[in-house]
Design a protein that fits this description.
5-stranded antiparallel beta sheet; 11 strands; two-stranded antiparallel sheet; 37% helix; 10 helices; 14% strand; alpha+beta; 350 residues
């Protein structure tokens, strides 16, 4: 009697994939995924800061808002903004955490009528310089000497090290992200030197802590300038130059031309003190950038590549210092060069 072949025996036998081939395919897939991750980690630009989307002059967009809103009026500030607690204070204004339509905002109040001119100078600068480089203005009230701006919970740049030391931010505590912060900082200086309001000088920068306090760290780890109370104008065509304050300055942080030039035997006299230009900002860039780079792995490599441009920034002759645009171009070139080098070396190891 003939026997039927079992169903399982019909057709050609299926060939199993050899284990070695499966392992090679898995490794190839893992390498491809790792390449994509490397491209994202080292090359992808930082996301845009919240609230940076362009709005017409006199309007703002905050966070998830779909449409631009006009700057808030006195009446709206009085009735719609709820003051919560004080979060900072300087010579010109007190800053309070506040709430507007369930959003956290920063409410600034004039500290004293004696510095009212500085307060309103800062407001005029905020109004005229609104851009991705400047904190977003939400409204103001001249009658109450108040202004409202976007709130950044990470605070001023002075808090950078404490913030990056938190466990949840360890992944961004890298030379790449720190150098990007330095790029942001120089971008702001370059913007102020070529602003819609002319060449502006950051005068509230007599030492490193004071300078850092002028900038805010956003939630996506980019920088915006916040304090514009002392931003005088340089106009070469009318031979208008600046003097930062009316007191004698000291130390290595300020530029040499900001120091009293007539020796210790001659008492300081503001009327005799020579004026200067925006190149005082250039002198300070290496010190601020060194702080931003910190001492993480790779930061010394970045410093090595920036040595020449930083040396030029420290020229005793202001005219010989590079422009902020020159420095920005160098920073971006170094950032891209080192990113490409690290990615290439990592891929060769795979």
């Amino acid at each position: 009697m003939d026997r039927k072949a079992p169903d399982g025996g019909r057709g050609p036998p299926r060939s199993a994939v050899p284990p070695a081939v499966g392992l090679l395919l898995s490794m190839a897939l893992m390498n491809a995924l790792l390449y994509l991750c490397l491209d994202w980690f080292f090359i992808a630009p930082a996301p845009s800061a919240p609230g940076s989307t362009h709005c017409p002059h006199g309007h703002f967009r905050l966070g998830p808002m779909e449409n631009c809103s006009p700057w808030l009026s006195c009446e709206e500030l009085r009735t719609e903004v709820r003051q919560l607690k004080r979060v900072g204070e300087g010579a010109v204004k007190r800053v309070f955490l506040a709430e507007w339509k369930e959003r956290k905002v920063a409410l600034s109040r004039l500290t004293s009528l004696e510095v009212k001119d500085d307060f309103w100078h800062g407001l005029q600068m905020l109004q005229g310089l609104q851009s991705k480089h400047v904190v977003t203005l939400l409204g103001y009230c001249e009658d109450d000497n108040t202004l409202l701006t976007e709130y950044h919970p990470l605070g001023s740049l002075s808090n950078l090290e404490a913030t990056l030391n938190l466990s949840k931010y360890q992944t961004v505590n890298t030379w790449q992200r720190r150098l990007q912060l330095a790029v942001d900082y120089v971008s702001i200086i370059d913007y102020l030197h070529h602003s819609p309001l002319g060449t502006r000088v950051m005068c509230d920068s007599s030492d490193l802590p004071k300078t850092l306090s002028q900038y805010l760290l956003t939630s996506n780890f980019s920088l915006v300038v916040n304090d514009l109370d002392a931003l005088p104008l340089v106009n070469r065509s009318s031979r208008t130059f600046v003097k930062c304050g009316h007191r004698e300055l000291h130390g290595d942080f300020v530029a040499p031309e900001q120091l009293w030039p007539y020796g210790e035997d001659t008492p300081f006299d503001d009327d005799l003190m020579p004026s200067y230009d925006e190149k005082i900002d250039i002198w300070k860039i290496p010190d601020v950038s060194s702080f931003l780079l910190g001492h993480v792995e790779g930061s010394d490599m970045v410093r090595f590549h920036l040595f020449d441009i930083h040396k030029a920034c420290k020229s005793q002759t202001p005219a010989e210092r590079p422009t902020a645009q020159d420095i920005l171009d160098t920073y971006k070139k170094v950032l891209n060069l080192l990113r490409d080098t690290v990615v290439s070396q990592t891929r060769e190891m795979l």
